[in-house]
Amino acid sequence: MNFLDGSLFPENQDKLVITAAPYGPEWLPSDYPEDIPVTMQDQIQKAVDCYEAGASVLHLHVRELDGRGSKHLSKFNELIAGVREAVPEMVIQVGGSISFAPPEDGDAAKWLEDDTRHMLAELDPKPDQVTVTVNTTQMNVTEQMDARDYAGTSMGNETYEAYREMIVPSGPEFIEEHIKRLSNAGIQSAFQFYNINSYETVERLMRRGVYKGPLVCNWVAIGGGMDQPHIYSMANFLRAIPDGTMLTVESSMLNVLPINMMGMAMGLHVRCGIEDNLWAQDRSHKVTTVEQIQQLVRIAKEFGRPVANGQEAREILKIGVFYDTVEETLAANGFAPNPKGGTQGFLRK
């Protein structure tokens, strides 16, 4: 990604797309009862509140009435339908893990089997995006946490070891089949890039014709097998990706706000919510997802970056856009064309 003269001027940047992650599947309602919705109506209302605060993308997980993360796709269908009716312009992004929360206290925190995750392509109503993890990796969400972040919570009492040992399964067979099913359903793949390696895998998939759509992605800087949340890791990643990439920055706990401010200044997009962080920067109190969104809206105003509404976010994200050929895909995403006569893999025609 090039930063030419004037790149930091807000008039040369897209409007800011804010993704809200308000459902926090790693927490139990007792961890933050004031801001963890449990009933279906409350989960729908949470989406409305986030949209009215300034978020245009909803990162969606679902809870059962017992407060645990739901793994039933029928519940996802119900929540998506409710959000569609309540805030039709909001971009719905389903978390591809479905729910990595342990079913019972002390159980392993793990992602579901490939066949279950593939069924996200069959959700009805269909979401705008599904997050797609790229390459199997460690996902130790505790590594960049301070003990004060989870003290007194369910993670501190029962599930710390489960989250510390969590693995994201995402091998080549899964990735290719998953992208194919999502694309056939008209659902955008929102790639979760943990480092340059995972980005390079998607570039190769584009060059082979496996994925033919816009490069929309998150840079996930949470440590524990993924990139570290600091300026050198971010700059290294930004040097690798092409101009035109729609990139959202994502981190955890007290790293969320500074990483978002760096991204905001450089024309990137941001994510916040209790799935990422529970605390004010001085840890004096917990902050709700809506309060986190409102904070980013205030900061964006100081930066001079207008905040995108739902329709503007859809245009920036290129929701519903797919390309016909490998060549068109590469050109639209700012990549150099494939070398003539080069071998990109058995799927290239």
Q: How many angstroms separate the termini?
A: 29 Å
Helicity, in percent?
25-40%
* Arithmetic mean of pLDDT: 93
Spatial order of strands in the largest sheet: 1-2-3-4-7-8-9-10
Give the overall form: globular
Give a count of the beta strands, DSSP E runs of length 2 or more. Answer: 10
Cofactor: Zn(2+)
GO molecular function, one term: metal ion binding
Keywords: Metal-binding, Transferase, Zinc
Protein name: 3-keto-5-aminohexanoate cleavage protein
Key phrases:
eight-stranded parallel β-barrel, 10 strands, single chain, 349 residues, alpha/beta, two-stranded antiparallel ribbon
In short:
The chain is an alpha/beta fold.
How would you describe what is shown here?
By secondary structure, this protein is an alpha/beta fold. It contains 12 helices and 10 strands. Strand 8, helix 8 and strand 9 form a beta-alpha-beta unit. The mean pLDDT is 93. This is 3-keto-5-aminohexanoate cleavage protein. Its cofactor is Zn(2+). It comes from Pseudomaricurvus hydrocarbonicus. Keywords: Metal-binding, Transferase, Zinc.
